[in-house]
Amino acid sequence: MTARIIDGKAIADKLRGEIAARVAEFRAQTRIIPHLTAVLTGDDPASAVYVRNKHLACEKAGIGSTVVRLSAETSQTELLATVERFNRDPAVHGILVQLPLPKQINPQVILDAVTPLKDVDCFHPENVGRLVQGRPRFLPCTPSGVQQLLIHEKVPVAGSHVVIIGRSEIVGKPLASMFMQKGMAADATVTVCHSRTRDLVSITKTADILVAAIGVAEFVKAEMVKPGAVVIDVGINRVGEKLVGDVDFAGVSQVASAITPVPRGVGPMTITMLLENTLTAARLQG
Ligand code: NAD
């Protein structure tokens, strides 16, 4: 079997076009320009690329975007004051604090300080709580991007066994919660695996849909995948000059029925869902 390649870039482009049209309509009706402010602290080169891509995507969709750059020496108090300034600014609808933060700053303190109505990453406990209860205000960007890929690819999710490798607050945990809700690309039976899981392969082999969010290059091998499974690779790992996922693409695409590549898989969807959330935030505050 050679897997169908799920073209995340094409799906993301289509969705971004639809979002841009809704942004234009919202702007015409309300005279409000949805605005995202990203705070980039320190000089991590990957973070700078992510923030730049988010900024360009906003501009293309008709969403205002500001990038605030703070030095690697910024104190927690200073960053907190910056977040609070944007919390109070009525022209800013979404606040994104790019992670990771320099080591002198506790990310939890900062993320908790973002006012829930502007929390377009869906990290605030109030928004996470709403998500778990099945009444979300925002959907977290990467998990929501994964669900959108499955919807666009018409992958049946209801009743299927979804196995997620990784239990992070950003990907694994919220994605598991979303897959177990009632609704589109949901109603699944969900298993979450992590670094302490015993006999991982025996579990991954039973997945109809396998999601890898581990952060280890090419961790998922063909022998871990059930023939015909759909494999979603969230991982982004730099190996030399190349970006590779958490899935051994060459091997696994011989076994799976469909697979996301890296790059051009989940990555472009994450930014797309951020645009969606910024529009939602503007509607909520408009
Ligand atoms: P993380 O480091 O916070 O979590 C990794 C998870 O993998 C942990 O829960 C850990 O228990 C699990 N894990 C580690 N080793 C394991 C093992 N041997 N067996 C089973 N489980 C194991 O990572 P994260 O923030 O969720 O990111 C995961 C990957 O996804 C990274 O490569 C990251 O760059 C990428 N990522 C991509 C996007 C995107 O937009 N495509 C967004 C967020 C993260």
Gross morphology is globular
Report low-confidence residues grouped into runs of 5 or more.
Answer: none
Strand content: 15-25%
| Structural class estimated from helices and strands | alpha/beta
Mean pLDDT comes to 97
Q: Could you name the CATH class of the largest domain?
A: Alpha Beta
**Cα separation of the termini:** 51 Å
Properties at a glance:
286 residues; alpha/beta; Rossmann fold; 2 domains; three-stranded parallel beta sheet; 11 strands; 41% helix; globular; binds nicotinamide-adenine-dinucleotide
Write the topology of this structure.
Blueprint: E1 4-5, H1 8-30, E2 35-41, H2 45-61, E3 64-70, H3 76-88, E4 94-97, H4 107-113, H5 125-132, H6 141-152, E5 161-165, H7 172-180, E6 189-193, H8 200-204, E7 209-212, E8 230-233, E9 237-239, E10 242-244, H9 249-252, E11 258-259, H10 266-285
Parallel strand pairs: 1-11, 2-3, 2-4, 5-6, 5-7, 7-8, 8-11
Antiparallel strand pairs: 9-10
The structure holds nicotinamide-adenine-dinucleotide.
Written account of the structure:
This protein has ten helices and eleven strands. α2 (45-61) links the parallel β2 (35-41) and β3. It folds into two domains: 30-116, Rossmann fold (3-Layer(aba) Sandwich); 141-267, 3-Layer(aba) Sandwich (Rossmann fold), CATH 3.40.50. It has 286 residues and is α/β, with parallel strands linked by helices. The protein starts with a strand and ends with a helix. The chain is globular, with a radius of gyration of 19 Å. Strands 1-11-8-7-5-6 form a six-stranded parallel beta sheet. The chain has helices at 8-30, 45-61, 76-88, 107-113, 125-132, 141-152, 172-180, 200-204, 249-252, 266-285; strands at residues 4-5, 35-41, 64-70, 94-97, 161-165, 189-193, 209-212, 230-233, 237-239, 242-244, 258-259. It binds nicotinamide-adenine-dinucleotide (NAD).
